Amino acid sequence: MKKAFIGISIFATTLFSGCDVLTAVADTAMSTGTTATAGLTNDEVISGLKEALTVGIKNGANLASATDGFLKNDLIRLPFPPDVIRVKEKLEKTSVGKQKVEEFETGINRAAELASKEAAPIFINAIKEMSIGDGFTILKGADNAATNYLKEKTTAQLTAKFSPIVQNAIDQVKVMSLWGGLTTAYNASTILTGKDEVETDLNKYITERAISGLFTLVAKEELKIRKDPVARVTDVLSKVFGSLDK
Questions:
Q1: What is the domain partition of the chain in residue ranges?
Q2: What does the pLDDT look like over 48-91, one tens digit per residue?
Q3: Could you read off the pLDDT of 112-162 as tens digits, one per residue?
Q4: Which residues of 27-50 are buried (b: 16+ CB within 10 A; e: fewer)?
Q5: Residue 113 and residue 61: Cα distance in Å, rounded?
Q6: Least CB-packed of 2, 199, 203, 220 within 10 Å?
Q7: Who contacts 205 (Cβ-Cβ below 8 Å, separation ≥6)?
Q8: Residue 26 CB neighbour total at 10 angstroms
Q9: Averaged pLDDT of the chain
Q10: Is the pTM of this model over 0.90?
């Protein structure tokens, strides 16, 4: 009987000891494998997201503001205003008209490039003022989640502040003069049709397209930061976005 009791005691000790080992293994697995963002606070994540957007707009503005930054980039190039596309279609039927269309399209893209030189501070200020509730939701979201959040929260503010800069750019590259040449040629060619009144708000058109183009470039930069460790040029970017690699 005594031997049986000793045997049961040894078995129980071994069993509970094994359970302790299994528990320890499970705890280790939980601490290392459940989430890639363990150890990060929401404030750190928000800081990382804002840093990523700041880097994105700086790089994006540099690309957009270069000569041909808009004109020769199919992702963001400003096309002929679609609400008056009949002007383009009519004029392109002649070599002179086609040349005028090309000059105008170059002009509106040059205006966007010129305005983009002053875009970064406006965007960065909007980023700093932007309130983000749950940084983890954005961090773990789509590859352009931070950019989309910025777009949703700041587009109206950006438009109001960017529009005067665009107007100045329009004046510098003489877009209105180019537009006047187009409409004069168009009106002369359709004098018998009665369809000679064409109007479009070029400031609104260029402002909206320029901001949209900048957001497109920011999204590309965000994707780089999410996927390429080399693009994480600050400690906070390495810490926050590096957590996604695990």
A1: 1-34, 42-245
A2: 999 999 999 999 999 999 999 999 999 999 999 998 998 999 88
A3: 999 999 999 999 999 999 999 999 999 999 999 999 999 999 999 999 999
A4: eeeeeeeeeebeebeeebbbbbbb
A5: 9
A6: 2
A7: 78, 81, 108
A8: 10
A9: 85
A10: no
pLDDT in tens, 156-209: 999 999 999 999 999 999 999 999 888 888 877 766 555 556 778 999 999 999
Structural contact between residues 52 and 59, judged by C-beta atoms closer than 8 angstroms = no
The label of the residue with tokens 């400690």 reads: 235
Structure tokens at 122: 């406006």
Handedness of CA 208, 213, 214, 220 (dihedral sign): positive
Residue matched to tokens 């390429």: 228
Instruction: Output the pLDDT for position 26.
Output: 35
The pLDDT of residue 194: 58
Kindly give, in sequence order, each residue whose CB lies less than 8 Å from that of residue 203, ignoring residues fewer than 6 positions away.
163, 166, 167, 170
Residue bearing the bigger pLDDT, 232 or 20: 232
